[in-house]
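R.M. (postdoc): so does anyone remember the format we settled on? I'll just put the structure tokens first.
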């Protein structure tokens, strides 16, 4: 599991910087984006929804890569980032290392109508 422990915005506290899990506060369509800088050799990182891979990318020596995923989640579903492949003694830079090369973000695009008082959203 890759944990992003520097959090700039966490409206509703859906992201837990201790566990690295984002827990959907509402059912709906969410958009997630992951980017990282691989310092040495090849690595593969992925976004997981309830344990299933929804987005994966690889990066090579001193290269930045990214991926995005649009997923439908139910209230309480969990999103996190995992290393699919990290070569031994290789590095993916994190913000705690003094860089802004790596990050994970997400937002609710549309809420389920049943989740909203007074409608809006979608079915």
């Amino acid at each position: 599991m890759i944990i992003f422990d520097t959090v700039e915005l966490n409206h509703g506290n859906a992201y837990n910087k201790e566990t690295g899990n984002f827990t959907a506060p509402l059912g709906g369509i969410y958009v997630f984006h992951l980017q990282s800088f691989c310092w040495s050799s090849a690595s593969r990182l992925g976004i997981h929804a309830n344990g299933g891979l929804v987005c994966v990318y690889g990066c090579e020596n001193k290269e930045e890569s990214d991926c995005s995923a649009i997923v439908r989640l139910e209230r309480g579903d969990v999103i996190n980032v995992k290393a699919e492949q990290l070569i031994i003694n290789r590095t993916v830079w994190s913000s705690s290392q003094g860089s802004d090369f790596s990050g994970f973000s997400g937002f609710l695009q549309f809420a389920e109508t049943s989740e909203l008082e007074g409608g809006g959203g979608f079915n």
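R.M.: ...and that's the designed sequence above, right after the tokens. Also worth knowing: The domain at 15-111 is CATH 2.60.120.40 (Jelly Rolls). Strands lie at 15-16, 21-23, 28-38, 43-49, 52-59, 63-73, 78-86, 103-111.
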